[in-house]
Specification:
214 residues, Serine Threonine Protein Phosphatase 5, Tetratricopeptide repeat, 2 domains
């Protein structure tokens, strides 16, 4: 009911203002009143005057889903230049705008041209995870596995597939991917230190029977 009181109050205030401030002639008063009543009728038809007010959470900005650090890590491990690099750069640009579906679709276009490129399959897996708000969908899982099949010894597919699995609570599969990758990484490297730290966290969580989110 509060909405109705406010609506009528504004209409009455507007009509009084027209009379006192606008000094509309008597001949125009009926037309002005009819216009205000028409506005109230439109409010009753299209609005929700009986609906209680409630604060609305602001929508996340367009680029909130895009993980710049993750993209930089991928560029450091996978192909940065060449045909795959161009498709990935276009996909990253769309991801920064929050266009996660388009970011994945552009990589599908690249895969139609070069279906056996592990970097594009890896990028598609990451893009699909971003589109699903971090969830490893069946499509993302397939893309990661395809990248692994095409490049079984490459560090990027194992690293990013393991990261996606760990963030989804699939700790043992993530560890299985990361353990040999950490062992093969150069001693003292940043990647090796990160993987060893994540593996230690996973082992701790597995012992405690709880999830982890590296």
């Amino acid at each position: 009911m509060t909405g109705w009181f406010i609506a009528f109050g504004l209409a009455a205030a507007g009509f009084i203002a027209l009379l006192l401030i606008g000094r509309i002639p008597r001949s125009a008063r009926e037309i002005s009143a009819a216009a205000l009543l028409l506005g109230l009728a439109g409010y009753a038809w299209q609005g929700n005057p009986g609906l209680a007010g409630a604060p609305r959470a602001s929508r996340e900005s367009a680029g909130d889903k895009f993980d710049e650090k993750l993209a930089e890590q991928r560029r450091g491990m996978a192909e940065r230049y060449g045909p795959a690099g161009q498709w990935l750069m276009l996909s990253d640009g769309l991801g920064r705008q929050g266009k996660t579906r388009e970011a994945a679709n552009i990589l599908l276009s690249g895969l139609r041209a070069t279906p056996d490129d592990p970097n594009l399959w890896l990028g598609l897996g990451n893009a699909l995870v971003a589109h699903a708000d971090g969830v490893v969908s069946p499509g993302a899982d397939f893309a990661y596995r395809r990248a692994l099949t095409l490049d079984p010894e490459g560090p990027a597919p194992r690293y990013f597939y393991g990261l996606a699995l760990a963030r989804n609570g699939q700790l043992q599969p993530a560890r299985d991917l990361w353990a040999p990758l950490a062992a093969s990484a150069p001693p003292g490297s940043k990647v090796r230190a990160e993987l060893e730290a994540n593996i230690a966290r996973i082992d701790s969580m597995l012992d405690a029977g709880g999830p982890a989110a590296p």
